[in-house]
Amino acid sequence: MERILIIEDEKDVNRLLAQTLQDSGYETVSAFNGMDGLRMLQEEQYDMVLLDLILPYKSGDEVLRELRKDSDVPVIVISAKDMVGTKIDLLTLGADDYVTKPFDLGEVAARVASNLRRYHKKEEKKQIIYKELVMDTEARTVSADGADLELTAKEYQMLELFLQFPNKVFSKVNLYETVWGYEYLGDENVIKTHISNIRSKLKRHSDTEYIETVWGLGYRLAK
Ligand code: CA
Hints:
- The chain is an alpha/beta fold.
- Helix content is 43%, strand content 22%.
- The chain is built from eight helices and eleven strands.
- It has a five-stranded parallel sheet, with helices on both faces. A four-stranded antiparallel sheet has the order 6-7-8-9. Strands 10-11 form a two-stranded antiparallel ribbon.
- Strand 7 and strand 8 form a beta hairpin.
- The longest helix is centred in the middle third of the chain and has 21 residues, at 105-125.
- The two termini are 39 Å apart.
- Calcium ion (CA) is lined by residues 9-10, 52, 54-55.
């Protein structure tokens, strides 16, 4: 079940939000000031945060700023109608959405659902799956047939390029300049060695050919 943290100091409002979200099938946890809210976020995992702006001890925007240093949990800000001007700031600070008080509870529930959906879609995209390979582009890990590969940073980057552009033929110059980030000086062996290392690491776990040599042109993801 998805857990939502509600940071709102007005007890009635907090309870009303909790009840609405529980009725929609979520688990809720309540915090009644900014300090507690932030501490709870640092101690435990939540799938979403509803965040009031005017809070005792630590304001909503401070909570948001600190939270964003190491978390991308979706945040919906609850703000009073006369704070419209701050909305833009909040979105640049990292809020995903906002609702204005007095709010329609049905609308809050709908916003929560749509933001969670969007977030999960974003999460899914962090994985590239190709044949027996699974690449997690956030954790920067790759597994082949379920076994983790120990790739160097450069090997990982090369493999990521092939997986991200499955139809492109990469010349040695392309690969070199993209992965190393400076001008290619004609040392073909660097690329050859890296390609051969990636291939042999893959071969330990999978019989599938992943990188194809295109004679005279370069390399691409094998079909
Ligand atoms: Ca408040």
